[in-house]
Every structure is written in structure tokens, then in C-alpha cells.
């Protein structure tokens, strides 16, 4: 079975840096929604919030490096 290449941590850090507009090291709902809108993926804010809540392990309402890495590993 062919498996897609896992992202290395530096690739995940680069993705986080690109999405993290306020520089706090985490991706919040507004940052993710802005990225999705720019990619012409029109999800409403509630859907983006649900996605973040689903993958937010520490419960702070944002995706940190570890949480983002787990999302991208799927």
C-alpha cells in the first residue's frame, strides 16, 4: 500500500507561520477562515469554528503546532 509522505515538523511550522497572522503561534477561527476564503473555499464561520473545536486538544479555541500536525497527518 502506498502511503503519502508525512509532513515533517518544519513543513508544519511553515504552514502555521503562513496562517498565523497575529503571530501568537496558533491558528484561530478568523485566521483559518481568512485563509479558506482566499483559497475560494467558502465555509461559514460556524463550520470553521466546529473544525477547530474538533481538533483543539488543549481547549483554548485555537490550533497550535501539535494540533495542526495531527490535522495534517490525516
Automatic annotation (TrEMBL):
Q: Which InterPro entries does this one have?
A: EF-hand-dom_pair, EF_Hand_1_Ca_BS, EF_hand_dom
Keywords assigned: Calcium
Which GO MF terms does the UniProt record name? calcium ion binding
- Gene3D superfamilies cross-referenced by the UniProt entry: EF-hand
Q: Which domain of life is it from?
A: Eukaryota
Q: Which residues belong to any copy of the EF-hand domain?
A: 7-42, 43-74
Identification of the protein by name: EF-hand domain-containing protein
What is the originating organism of this protein?
A: Paragonimus westermani
Amino acid at each position: 500500500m502506498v502511503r503519502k509522505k508525512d509532513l515533517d515538523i518544519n513543513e508544519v511550522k511553515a504552514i502555521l507561520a503562513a496562517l498565523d497572522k497575529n503571530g501568537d503561534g496558533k491558528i484561530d477561527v478568523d485566521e483559518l477562515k481568512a485563509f479558506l476564503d482566499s483559497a475560494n473555499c467558502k465555509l461559514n464561520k460556524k463550520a470553521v469554528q466546529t473544525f477547530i473545536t474538533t481538533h483543539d486538544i488543549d481547549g483554548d479555541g485555537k490550533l497550535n503546532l501539535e494540533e495542526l500536525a495531527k490535522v495534517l497527518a490525516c
